[in-house]
């Protein structure tokens, strides 16, 4: 009886050892090996043109998804699948494993660097306002909003524009948090907000085909603490996926600035004039 019990215990222990060995081996393999094995990488986007969005034909496109496709193909990962979430859900979704990489043109900020690993940036861009046609409130920058307590500024929840507004000194009660660009466009048209803050490319694209709105021109350069603000967008990876991020960076460096890259990103308003000027390390350091 004792012998049988001992054998059962020893068999159970062996099975558990094998289980944990497999589990540790799987964890050690990491996301990079997993996506290579399945041949599919899942990207998170926020349906924000021109950064990462789904077009009228249902194709996921934009600067970030198209650059991601080229880089992942060079890494031997042939298929890219997208998960669409609100911008504020991108980092939580990445952490929860809903997707493997954020490919939404997300700006690198020190606060976000505390939560995710960023690739090297793939672009830089300035800021702008979307306003009603004729710009009736005569808004040309964040300081104009700060100077008039009656002005309401719309921004996407979780995006950097909310932080810019706080840094400039705009009271929270003047800032309206919105889920996405489409809602921001509607808020301007309905009068819910007097201006919608976004990147220069975002607001230009929103204004392109609607005569009832326009971009605020001229737009004053945003300067905070004596520094000219130009956002640098990059791809986000989970903490612990350094090997995945590093492999991506290696292939990204060989792609940015090439003729193939330029042909890919030009339709979205990007080009050599939007090539990044800072590294991820510089931007994460503030």
TrEMBL record:
Superkingdom of the source species: Bacteria
UniProt keyword terms in alphabetical order: Signal
Signal peptide: 1-29
Name assigned to this protein: Amino acid ABC transporter substrate-binding protein (PAAT family)
Gene3D superfamilies documented for this protein: Periplasmic binding protein-like II (3.40.190.10)
Keyword Nuclease: no
GO molecular function: ectoine binding
NCBIfam families: ectoine_ehuB
PANTHER family named in the record: ARGININE-BINDING EXTRACELLULAR PROTEIN ARTP, MEMBRANE-BOUND LYTIC MUREIN TRANSGLYCOSYLASE F
Keyword Signal tagged: yes
Domain Solute-binding protein family 3/N-terminal residues, every copy: 40-272
GO biological process terms on file: ectoine transmembrane transport
Family: Belongs to the bacterial solute-binding protein 3 family.
A Pfam family it matches: SBP_bac_3
